Design the sequence.
């Protein structure tokens, strides 16, 4: 399992992204990913939320399909009916991501109070690296980044915000 962790990277980030920041974030992620890919990291866990998770999943699919990179996308999701409140467009985007994912995992079969925390911890616990889009001290992304640091993952941030402020 330790060897698999060294080949696995998870992503965590905010749901809300300033529309003008999408390309900046993807450029930073590309810069971070390049040496990881060169060093054999090939499994990528994404959490299935609107915002950064969707942006990254679509980026990874494009990278894999167009550039023929050896990338395996694992969608780690909270429970089967997690997108009840989503728009039709968000559901369509996620359906595409799930169809293109190499593996889909649900951490629970139904909603529980801690299901998102369990999902975030699973992503971290099975990874050696974490790429985040974190620009504040509070919320699920900040918690997940702190957890990843505590667990000894190499953590990168695609935001210009300094993670040492956590």
Sequence:
């Amino acid at each position: 399992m330790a060897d698999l962790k060294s080949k696995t990277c998870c992503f965590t980030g905010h749901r809300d992204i300033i529309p003008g920041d999408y390309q900046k974030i993807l450029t930073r992620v590309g810069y971070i990913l390049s040496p990881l890919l060169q060093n054999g990291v090939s499994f990528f866990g994404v959490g299935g939320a609107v915002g950064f998770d969707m942006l990254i999943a679509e980026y990874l699919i494009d990278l894999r399909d167009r550039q023929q990179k050896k990338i395996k996308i694992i969608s780690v999701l909270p429970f089967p009916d997690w997108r009840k409140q989503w728009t039709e467009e968000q559901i369509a985007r996620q359906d595409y991501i799930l169809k293109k994912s190499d593996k889909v995992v649900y951490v629970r079969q139904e909603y529980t109070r801690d299901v998102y925390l369990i999902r975030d911890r699973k992503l971290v616990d099975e990874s050696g690296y974490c790429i985040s889009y974190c620009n504040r001290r509070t919320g699920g992304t900040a918690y997940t980044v702190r957890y990843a640091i505590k667990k000894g993952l190499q953590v990168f941030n695609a935001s210009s915000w300094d993670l040492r402020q956590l």
